[in-house]
UniProtKB/TrEMBL annotation:
Highest taxon in the source lineage: Bacteria
InterPro entries xref list: DUF6483
A Pfam family reported for this protein in Swiss-Prot or TrEMBL: DUF6483
Protein name listed in UniProt: Bacterial transcriptional activator domain-containing protein
């Protein structure tokens, strides 16, 4: 695991770069902002924006995880810069390009979150929440929703995690691995206290109801 202080220092560098991009956007210099983002992506990852955006979310993870774990520097730079790039495309009314970059940015942040304490860093925590809100009206890719499910449980948003779980089951019927993840999810919740469950908008009764729903899906 990367040291928390290292993540904080990295976040400061990200913030300084984003401030430059934001200033360009404020002066309606969107083309210059896109060029700056591309330059920073190439510097941080060795890859251009066009190449990164040609990859699926799963392939993008593989490219930025050469040893099966994320290259934290490259992954966080890519995530934050792709988010910024998506916002620039939103400025100029290109919602399609904006959407694809937002999905990749969210996917990367949720992936890195599994390994590193990035939710402790305000700018990164806010980026995740902003991307989730931005993409709320869209159906996310299955792989991204699987990461979102784990993230929601980690934060104690149990009702939201359950909603995501059953959306996934609706879209991938008969997925035995996902059904097992669901059973494991309820097993973990079963040892939570009632106040903890209530804080996540959940209850012991809903655990049993959820398990019964899983049984119906498995049949």
């Amino acid at each position: 695991m990367v040291n928390r202080d290292y993540i904080l220092r990295l976040a400061e560098k990200l913030g300084r770069t984003l401030a430059i991009v934001l200033r360009l956007r404020e002066y309606n210099q969107q083309e210059e902002a896109l060029l700056r983002v591309d330059e920073e992506l190439l510097r941080a990852t060795g890859l251009t924006s066009s190449f990164l955006n040609s990859l699926s979310e799963e392939t993008l993870i593989q490219v930025l995880s050469p040893l099966g774990r994320p290259n934290v520097d490259a992954a966080l730079w890519a995530a934050v810069l792709l988010k910024a790039e998506g916002e620039i495309y939103q400025d100029i009314g290109n919602t399609t390009e904006s959407y694809y970059r937002a999905v990749k940015a969210l996917h990367l942040l949720l992936y890195v979150h599994q390994y590193e304490p990035i939710e402790e860093v305000e700018i990164l925590r806010e980026d995740i929440q902003m991307l989730i809100h931005t993409l709320d009206e869209y159906t996310l890719p299955v792989s991204t929703r699987q990461l979102l499910f784990r993230y929601q449980e980690h934060l104690g948003f149990y009702a939201q995690a359950e909603d995501t779980l059953f959306e996934l089951l609706e879209d991938t019927p008969g997925d035995k691995a996902l059904l097992q993840q669901g059973r494991d999810f309820y097993q973990r919740l079963s040892i939570r206290s009632a106040p903890d469950l209530a804080a996540g908008n959940f209850s012991p009764e809903e655990i049993q109801e959820g398990l019964e729903q899983l049984t119906r899906f498995s049949n």
